[in-house]
Automatic annotation (TrEMBL):
The keyword Glycoprotein is assigned to this record: no
The protein's name in its UniProt record: Group 1 glycosyl transferase
Coiled coil: none
Pfam family, one: Glycos_transf_1
Stored InterPro entries: Glyco_trans_1 (IPR001296), Glyco_trans_4-like_N (IPR028098)
Keyword Ubl conjugation: no
Domain spans labelled Glycosyl transferase family: 200-356
Length: 382
């Protein structure tokens, strides 16, 4: 809990931000930004399933200690019910008004606990549930229906909840992710934390995504790069991210003959500085929520090539701020790269438009302001 600010007059809204952990990820970064930015009219508390992750230090520096409600393995065991009851008691003891829960596993604890404690609860649905099987999707849908309100970060997710899960549109708010441009620019200026491969004067493409799930479709990117490489286009690619699929992707790059121009950088903490050295960015997933990787590429002034899935089209319209291609179409991906490389002035203009869009529509101030208004409405009524 962070101590209450003195002299605030009326009792502040007691708000809990609940996320799975503070490992590096889009959701965790957005929670951290809310902790930094919400006004002192809140008495903020943090709860997690796992008290771990490199971002936890930033949480501590802000003055918060996280209350932990561990699942300890399978959710189909007595501990889950115990943690629900334990959290309900904790919410009542702290007279919590509102819980904002940001992911599926945390919702298993937070939603029933809030209902037992008489607290309001907002569920965050921040992806298309593409990684969930039918049973988990059914459970997540039921937990979402129990919430007082739902926050999504992309229009595609809102449509899914209305069309497929039957959630009333009035109970859903679309709030895009936010990005602190000043902090991002400072990270770019800090420079690289480790050397990059020597690419000479060749153009550079950057792809930032984990290598855990096939949904990221790095295979399509490698195929597109092979088409350009064997056609004589000297494009290098930096693949930032790691996971169990990396070795297979490295093998595929070798088989396609692009090992010398495709560079696997693994995890990096200097992504902003890497983007600053790039010519264009790409995200070619077959499913996606609101991608922080795309937002950061746009903030760096890069034209982005994205697939027509999920929240990608909230960020990039084809021909505006970048190019949009169908998913799982490597040839069209290659054509988009070639189009941007062949028309550098057009590419620069798209990059400038992308940067302006982030400043105008995806600011951290806007993220905080819209959440603040929603929290007040849910707690106090319209």
């Amino acid at each position: 809990m962070r101590r209450e600010e003195p002299g605030m007059g009326a009792r502040p809204v007691r708000l809990v931000q609940f996320t799975r952990s503070f490992h590096i990820g889009g959701t965790e970064v957005q929670v951290l930004e809310l902790l930094r930015g919400l006004p002192p009219s809140y008495q903020l508390q943090v709860s997690v399933l796992e008290d771990a992750g490199p971002l936890m230090g930033a949480v501590w520096k802000l003055g918060y200690t996280a209350e932990t409600f561990p699942l300890k393995g399978s959710v189909a065991q007595a501990n889950t019910a115990y943690q629900v009851l334990r959290m309900a008691r904790w919410l009542r003891a702290h007279r919590v008004d509102l819980v904002h829960v940001h992911d599926f596993y945390s919702s298993l604890i937070a939603v029933p606990a809030a209902k037992l404690a008489g607290a309001k609860v907002i569920v965050g649905r921040l992806d298309l549930s593409h990684w969930q099987g039918p049973a988990r999707r059914a459970v997540h849908s039921r937990l979402t229906a129990m919430a007082d309100h739902v926050v999504v970060n992309a229009e595609a997710i809102r449509r899914q909840l209305v069309d497929e899960e039957g959630l009333p549109a009035a109970r859903i708010s679309v709030i895009h992710n936010g990005l602190d441009l000043a902090r991002f620019d400072a990270r770019m200026l800090e420079g690289l934390k480790a050397p990059l491969p020597d690419t000479g004067d060749a153009p550079i493409l950057v792809h930032v995504a984990n290598m855990n799930h096939p949904v990221k479709r790095q295979e399509d990117l490698l195929l597109a790069l092979a088409m350009l490489h064997h056609g004589g286009t000297p494009l290098h690619a930096f693949l930032v991210g790691d996971g169990p699929r990396r070795k297979g992707l490295e093998k595929l790059a070798a088989e396609l003959g692009v090992s010398e121009t495709v560079h696997f950088l693994r995890h990096r903490t200097d992504v902003a500085a890497i983007y600053a050295r790039a010519t264009l960015g790409v995200l070619c997933s077959s499913a996606e929520g609101m991608s922080n990787a795309v937002m950061e590429g746009m903030a760096a002034g890069l034209p982005m090539v994205v697939t027509r899935v999920g929240g990608n089209t909230d960020l990039v319209r084809d021909g505006e701020r970048g190019l949009v291609v169908p998913p799982e179409r490597p040839a069209q991906l290659a054509q988009a790269f070639n189009q941007l490389l062949s028309h550098p002035e057009k590419a620069r203009r798209m990059g400038n438009e992308a940067r302006e869009f982030v400043a105008r529509e995806l600011s951290l101030e806007r993220l905080v302001r819209l959440h603040d208004a929603l929290y007040q409405r849910v707690v106090h009524g319209p």
